[in-house]
Amino acid sequence: MRTTTARVPAKINLCLGVGPRRDDGYHPLATVYQAVDLCDEVRATEVDDDTVTVRTQFAGDGTREQAPVPTGPDNLAVRAALALREAFGVDAGVSLAIRKAIPVMGGMAGGSADAAAALVACDALWGTQAKRRELEEIAATLGSDVPFLLHGGTALGGGRGEEVSPVLARGRFHWVFAIADHGLSTAQVYAEYDVLHADSPPPMPEVPQALLTALAAGDATGLGRALSNDLQAPALGLRPELQRVFEVAEEGDALGALVSGSGPTVMVLAEDASHSEELARLLLATGVCADAVQASGPEAGAHLI
């Protein structure tokens, strides 16, 4: 049986501005994405019929509880394979195997990452030879983060997040991800955000110029000061114990800390690789998280290995 495998990075939001809820239920976003080298892998194997199936295994030492990953048609990787097949009239099935390293329901777009990897892997397996623009169009139908995870690097996100354009970023930035022992629902966080703004709708979001300036200069200190996330307050309201992660990060002289996306993962910015090791040890020693994972970015998007 022929197989192809794609690797895909996790996504973080260096800033996440959230506007008022639209009539379609979505919120306009202004964000800067960065892909980091904490990666899932999706292996696509040909099958003798037209079924599309998925199974998942988890990387790591198993110290944190793993949220359930859907194995049916709700799995984003399955949806990606089906969407690619429909777009190109493919008469074939596929068996998908996902090796998870990105936290599930951790605010780092693990499901969207798997969808991007499935597009790349199935395109190679089925020989559809899709142009990048065609993959991006399919990706946008699957979720707001999927198009960026095809691109990787550092990029501006607009619309619902699916409108992606590159951002100049020099050097690499070193992170520690304080991973909680269980996930947090994105829908629940957005619902809490709407409750907090029920009496005063938020303005249309914008990306802070200070953040773009820091990225262009490769200035980690400036980036730490410019990190922002409009979903942080509702995430902390739902999970107030996460505040302790920020306190420990400050004790360790972190350059900045931020709830990643809709949480509950907290991303902590270090000065360099050595400092990130120190911060990881401190976070684990104080028991404020189930795991502390080091990574750096920017990283390439979904690609064959």
TrEMBL record:
A single GO molecular-function term is: ATP binding
- Give the EC class as a word: transferase
User: What's its catalytic activity?
Assistant: 4-CDP-2-C-methyl-D-erythritol + ATP = 4-CDP-2-C-methyl-D-erythritol 2-phosphate + ADP + H(+)
Task: Please give a single GO biological process term from the UniProt record.
Answer: isopentenyl diphosphate biosynthetic process, methylerythritol 4-phosphate pathway
Look up keyword Kinase and say if it applies: yes
InterPro entries the record matches: GHMP_kinase_C_dom (IPR013750), GHMP_kinase_C_sf (IPR036554), GHMP_kinase_N_dom (IPR006204), IspE (IPR004424), Ribosomal_Su5_D2-typ_SF (IPR020568), Ribsml_uS5_D2-typ_fold_subgr (IPR014721)
Q: What is its EC number?
A: 2.7.1.148
Residues bound to ATP are 103-113
Keyword Zinc: yes or no? no
Name all GHMP kinase N-terminal domain ranges.
75-153
* Pathway(s) of this molecule: Isoprenoid biosynthesis; isopentenyl diphosphate biosynthesis via DXP pathway; isopentenyl diphosphate from 1-deoxy-D-xylulose 5-phosphate: step 3/6
Pfam families (alphabetical)? GHMP_kinases_C, GHMP_kinases_N
Query: Per the database record, which ranges form the GHMP kinase C-terminal domain?
Result: 212-281
Q: Which residues form the active site?
A: 11, 145
What keywords are assigned to this protein?
A: ATP-binding, Isoprene biosynthesis, Kinase, Nucleotide-binding, Transferase
As for family, the record states:
Belongs to the GHMP kinase family. IspE subfamily.
Which HAMAP family does this chain map to?
IspE
The protein's job, in short, is: Catalyzes the phosphorylation of the position 2 hydroxy group of 4-diphosphocytidyl-2C-methyl-D-erythritol.
User: Do you know which PANTHER family this protein is assigned to?
Assistant: 4-DIPHOSPHOCYTIDYL-2-C-METHYL-D-ERYTHRITOL KINASE, CHLOROPLASTIC
Q: Which NCBIfam families match?
A: ispE, PRK03188.1
**Name of the protein in its database record:** 4-diphosphocytidyl-2-C-methyl-D-erythritol kinase
Give the lineage.
Answer: Bacteria, Bacillati, Actinomycetota, Actinomycetes, Propionibacteriales
